[in-house]
Specification:
Rossmann fold, ATP-binding, six-stranded antiparallel β-sheet, binds adenosine-5'-triphosphate, P-loop_NTPase, globular, alpha/beta
């Protein structure tokens, strides 16, 4: 489903993050682990096409991600990749439904309120459809964030620390939702976390060693 090869990222000219090659099959579930600062978020952002690596290639759903630019990159991401970030990043001036309509629009897909209602209903937040983001609880906002990630039936779902601020019950609920929704889309699921509660639930682990940070230019 995706294949990362020779990925390196420079935040500065003297500080290079070097990542292991990584291949995942369609429908696989992966955990991305590593100590704080090992590069989990950086790698997830590169997998999502939000950052371009300094070096290396990413083939996702048969497409060479970093050769796309502008609208094409946005549409590819919108149609193929669902992203759940630590904070939902909903647009504060739009209702929940309008935020989700925007997600369809950005992907170049027709606006489909029925699909939005379906996803909100599955995630038990349909009654929040007309609410503004500030009217949501943290747990509701997170479920809206998952709804947005799965709305366009992506092939790849990426979640960055989706459980770190949650109690045990809500941690398990969010994992259930991510796994169920990934299965419903037939999507590959990648969860970046250092939350020990997540580790036993997912078989495939990519562990980033802190030593993968190397000094010097490429
Ligand atoms: N904007 C930035 N400028 C410079 N260095 C950065 C920047 N963002 C991250 N880094 C560095 O890159 C490395 C990897 O950061 P990253 O956020 O990807 O790690 P992480 O494993 O996700 O950490 P955490 O578990 O704490 O979220 C760290 O050493 C960090 O200090």
């Amino acid at each position: 489903m995706f294949q990362l090869t020779g990925i390196r990222y420079n935040y500065t000219t003297t500080h290079t993050l070097s990542f292991p090659d990584w291949t995942a099959a369609q429908g696989d579930r992966w955990l991305l682990t590593g100590v704080s600062g090992s590069g989990k978020t950086t790698l997830l952002h590169m997998l999502a096409g939000l950052r371009q690596p300094t070096q290396g290639t990413a083939i996702i759903a048969g497409t060479n991600l970093y050769t796309l630019s502008g609208n094409k990159a946005d549409q590819f991401r919108g149609q193929n990749i669902g992203l759940v970030l630590q904070k939902p990043h909903l647009l504060s001036v739009l209702t929940v439904e309008e935020n989700l309509l925007l997600t369809q629009y950005m992907a170049g897909l027709p606006q489909n309120k029925q699909r939005i209602a379906e996803v909100l209903s599955i995630l038990s937040v349909l009654e929040k459809r007309k609410s503004m983001p500030h009217q949501l609880s943290q747990g509701q906002a997170q479920r809206i964030s998952i709804a947005r990630a799965v709305l366009n039936l992506p092939k790849l779902i990426l979640a960055d620390e989706p459980t770190s601020s949650l109690d045990d019950l809500n941690c398990m609920r969010v994992l259930d939702l991510l796994e169920t929704q990934a299965a419903a889309c037939g999507a590959t699921l990648v969860i970046a976390t250092h939350d020990a509660r997540v580790k036993n639930r997912i078989a495939n682990h990519l562990h980033l060693e802190s030593v993968q940070t190397v000094s010097g230019t490429l």
